[in-house]
Amino acid sequence: MTHWSYFPYLLVWALPVIIVQWLVGGRYLWSERNLWPWIVLSLCIYFSLADAVAIRAGIWHFDTTSLVGLWLGPVPIEEVLFYLLTATMIVQGFVITWRSKRS
Amino acid sequence: MTYADFLLLFLVLPLSVLVIFLRRRLFDQRYLVLTGILMLVALVYMAPWDHLAAVWGLWAWANSQTWGLRWWAIPPEEYLFCVLEALLAITLTYALLTREARKGEAGTFLSRQRRGEAALRVSQDEKGGIPTQVSRRNHLEVHIEESEQEERS
Fold this sequence. Notes:
The complex is a heterodimer of chains A (103) and B (153).
Chain A: H1 6-31, H2 36-57, E1 60-62, E2 71-72, E3 75-76, H3 77-100
Antiparallel strand pairs in A: 2-3
Helix pairs in contact in A: 1-3, 2-3
Chain B: H1 3-22, H2 29-56, E1 59-61, H3 76-105, H4 109-127, H5 133-152
Helix pairs in contact in B: 1-3, 2-3, 4-5
């Protein structure tokens, strides 16, 4: 069965949300630019480390033929990107909705 | 280690620490409503995407380390992961955003110092029960002073 590989499938899912968030709430994100990128980066590192534990423990695994082939220890680079993008969507979503009626 | 153990260790545990740290700050209606909505949006946006990837076999979960249930092609633990990740990310952001806001409101060094002194007096007086007139007045004066400063600037 032919299907997408993880990397493009991830980008097509996450990037439109991030673009729309910047179009709608860019000014709030820009005014908080000293805060949220650090939260996103911290979450990305934290969840990538947790992911390494889960993969080593055998809780989940990947179809290696659908991966780019870059690994950070046991963690495929796609997973690191996954946590970066999901944290971005959530944190940006909260910053925009929290700030939009306050200021 | 099961998927449930993973959730307890990497999501429930840090969330508990955040909850203990924030305590009463969590009872903010706006925070609670936005968190509920965003968690729901995350869940609804994640599920079809994750399901299709699981059907394709991009990733899979060990049957022996999950509860064995599948809602669509996804174990319930995965839905929990999504919801808890959103909750953790939002709560951490909330903690830091509101901390920043409080710093911003603090104003000049002098007013901050005066407010600190007044707050100290109030807390000392309140240990004995009802705050005294003096401490109330001090508290009020500081606030009036600050609002005057804001008007001037």
